[in-house]
């Protein structure tokens, strides 16, 4: 017993010494240790979104409609297949129904970037090159989408866009691409660490140290402060800006606006990931990644180019990364800014109309992107990948349906591409899958072999085509109010009731039988009238349109039977 107590005390003493050493060395390298300790306990975004404007980019405001190569073709795509698909979208009437984007998912790229470091199409399967394909598809009055990842490689291990964001965005703009899906594979989290900074020089080209920002002329917020560094005790630095600890700002007066060189003199640290800071110049964000090692000399330099205005400029140094969600937010916003700049600059330089790019965030719902997606892009995946199985559709639906508060014009939850007509889904399940996606104001991105749908003698294909071109349901999906359906509280067991308000004052109502038996139902429409979200006034009777049978009738309630896994869906007017 005594020896157990002695061992316990020894272990605790060693842990305490290790903690004190870690704490002291963290402070000595200019970092706030308490702020670092917050990280493992938080998984949500801590970035202050009030400061961030919404991502607005003049793309269409209703959910995107088109086709993607991924669900059916995976890595077996080529220029002929893509072009034939575009032609089939026209022939089948799908393009007329609204499906106008032809999206190449992963595997369009060559594993080799070209001699300028730009992405290029696979040299074997896209021999004419992506720009030629975009041109041909545009001639059909259709638009083209492309895919990359914010990691070092895509999910299929092809070149991705980390550290190439500006370059790749310029390539997309030059090619006239109008949709961009940005995945999360081979992602590298941004470090919450920032080294202590000794001073910062700002020079116009060919001029010597015009302005020097030093710790003693800085303004500090939070825990940020002036400090001394162990290795160079005679020199001052500014620090404690890691993990959202605080900010260090300077007011700088400049005579001439223009691009200036900024040199950050910092103290090196040994780190697992590259230390990082943001430099906000008059509201514009620049990002700096520092080396992650501490070789011969204790201090180092990091340079960037910044735009300054004539007159007063405010320059702020910070590292706002507290959680992994914060890191994802900044990885995506980096590309969002690059895309907006790229399309704008391309239009100015070539004196053409800007072709904005719909930006699609695909990080599988990990960092709760519905809470920040509208600041960064037009749509955000809320779940892992869909498969053509009922279980997959159910799981995705259950998560996405709860997020109804986050959708509005130009900004949508994305429960992933459609699997209607794929795998072993029954006719009833295909109709339900399509209906639920329309009720949830989801982007409608087909995952079929469209060439098959053009075959008039293929009965299964024609049944699929009928579902996908249901005009009344497409109108619900594309409704300009863009409000996602809300689950309504009720007492019908095994049945979900969803309702969404529509722009002309109508309501779309869906009853979804999740059980494995046929169910009878009776639902009083007046139930919908006390709901602020639906804003629907009571009446003695309503005009009701059944959107699958196309029947129209007047009544104050709907009733009947719903097949297992089936739906009833109505448009209700006063
Ligand atoms: C991820 C995405 C999918 C698809 C593949 C491509 O899994 O979630 O939608 O884009 O990558 O590799």
Ligand identities: alpha-D-galactopyranose
Q: Strand order of the main beta sheet, please?
A: 18-17-16-4-3-2-1-19
Main sheet properties = 8 strands, parallel
Kindly report how far apart the N and C termini lie: 81 Å
> What shape does the CA trace take?
globular
Structure explained in plain terms:
- There is one protein chain.
- This protein is α/β, with parallel strands linked by helices.
- Strand 17, helix 10 and strand 18 form a beta-alpha-beta unit.
- Helix 7 crosses helix 8 and helix 11 packs parallel to helix 13.
- The longest helix is centred in the first third of the chain and has 27 residues.
- The chain starts with a helix and ends with a strand.
- The mean pLDDT is 94.
Tags for this model:
alpha/beta, six-stranded antiparallel β-sheet, 574 residues, 14 helices, binds alpha-D-galactopyranose, eight-stranded parallel β-sheet
What's a quick, concise take on this entry?
This protein is α/β, with parallel strands linked by helices. It is 26% helix and 26% strand.
Compile the SSE list and pairings.
Layout: H1 2-28, H2 33-38, E1 65-68, H3 70-73, H4 79-91, H5 94-97, E2 101-103, H6 130-139, E3 143-149, H7 165-175, E4 179-183, E5 197-203, E6 211-213, E7 219-222, E8 225-229, E9 232-239, E10 246-254, E11 258-267, E12 276-281, E13 284-289, E14 299-308, E15 311-318, H8 324-350, E16 358-361, H9 373-376, E17 379-381, H10 390-401, E18 412-414, H11 427-439, E19 444-446, H12 450-453, H13 459-468, H14 471-477, E20 486-487, E21 495-501, E22 507-513, E23 519-524, E24 542-546, E25 552-555, E26 557-562, E27 567-573
Parallel strand pairs: 1-2, 1-19, 2-3, 3-4, 4-16, 16-17, 17-18
Antiparallel strand pairs: 5-6, 5-11, 7-10, 8-9, 10-15, 11-14, 12-13, 12-15, 20-21, 21-22, 22-27, 23-26, 24-25, 24-27
Helix pairs in contact: 4-6, 7-8, 11-13, 11-14
Bound molecules: alpha-D-galactopyranose.
């Amino acid at each position: 017993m005594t020896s157990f107590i002695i061992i316990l005390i020894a272990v605790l003493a060693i842990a305490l010494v290790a903690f004190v050493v870690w704490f002291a060395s963290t402070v000595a390298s200019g970092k706030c240790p308490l702020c670092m300790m917050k990280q493992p306990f938080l998984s949500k975004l801590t970035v202050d979104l009030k400061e961030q404007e919404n991502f607005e980019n003049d793309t269409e405001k209703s959910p995107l409609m088109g086709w993607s190569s991924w669900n059916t073709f995976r890595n077996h795509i080529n220029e002929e297949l893509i072009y034939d698909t575009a032609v089939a979208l026209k022939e089948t009437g799908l393009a007329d129904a609204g499906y106008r984007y032809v999206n190449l998912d992963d595997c369009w790229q060559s594993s080799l970037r070209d001699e300028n470091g730009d992405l290029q199409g696979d040299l074997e399967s896209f021999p004419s090159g992506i720009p030629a394909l975009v041109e041909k598809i545009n001639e059909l009055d259709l638009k083209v989408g492309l895919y990359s990842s914010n990691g070092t490689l895509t999910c299929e291990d092809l070149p991705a866009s980390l550290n190439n964001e500006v370059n790749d965005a310029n390539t997309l703009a030059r090619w006239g691409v109008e949709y961009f899906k940005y995945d999360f594979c081979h992602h590298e989290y941004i470090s919450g660490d920032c080294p202590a900074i000794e001073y910062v020089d700002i020079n116009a080209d060919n001029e010597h140290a015009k302005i020097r920002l030093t710790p003693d002329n800085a303004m500090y917020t939070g825990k940020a402060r002036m400090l001394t560094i162990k290795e160079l005790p005679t020199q001052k630095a500014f620090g404690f800006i890691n993990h959202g600890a605080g900010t260090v700002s300077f007011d700088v007066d400049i005579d001439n606006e223009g691009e200036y060189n900024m040199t950050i003199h910092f103290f090196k640290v040994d780190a697992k990931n590259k230390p990082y800071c943001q430099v906000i110049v008059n509201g514009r964000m620049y990002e700096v990644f520092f080396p992650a090692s501490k070789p011969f000399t204790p201090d180092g330099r990091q340079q960037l180019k910044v735009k300054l205005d004539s007159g007063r400029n405010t320059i702020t140094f910070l590292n706002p990364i507290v959680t992994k969600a914060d890191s994802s937010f900044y990885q995506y916003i980096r590309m969002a800014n690059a895309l907006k700049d790229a399309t704008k600059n391309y239009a100015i330089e070539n004196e053409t109309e800007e072709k904005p790019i719909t930006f699609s965030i695909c990080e599988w719902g990990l960092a709760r992107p519905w809470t920040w997606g509208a600041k960064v892009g037009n749509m955000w995946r809320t779940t892992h990948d869909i498969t053509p199985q009922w279980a997959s559709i159910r799981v995705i639906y259950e998560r996405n349906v709860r997020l109804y508060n986050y959708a509005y014009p130009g900004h949508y939850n994305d429960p992933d591409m459609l699997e209607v007509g794929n795998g072993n889904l029954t006719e009833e399940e295909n109709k339900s899958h399509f209906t639920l996606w329309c009720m949830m104001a989801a982007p409608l991105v087909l995952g079929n072999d469209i060439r098959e749908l053009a075959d008039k003698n293929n009965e299964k294909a024609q049944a699929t085509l009928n579902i996908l071109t249901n005009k009344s349901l497409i109108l619900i999906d594309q409704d300009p109010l863009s409000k996602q359906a809300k689950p309504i509280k009720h007492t019908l067991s095994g049945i979900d009731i969803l309702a969404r308000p529509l722009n002309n004052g109508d309501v779309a109502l869906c009853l979804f039988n999740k059980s494995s038996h046929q169910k009878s139902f009776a639902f009083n429409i007046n139930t919908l009238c006390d709901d602020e979200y639906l804003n629907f006034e009571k009446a003695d009777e309503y005009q009701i349109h059944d959107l699958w049978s196309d029947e129209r009738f007047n009544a104050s309630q709907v009733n009947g039977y719903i097949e297992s896994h089936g739906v009833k869906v109505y448009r209700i007017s006063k």
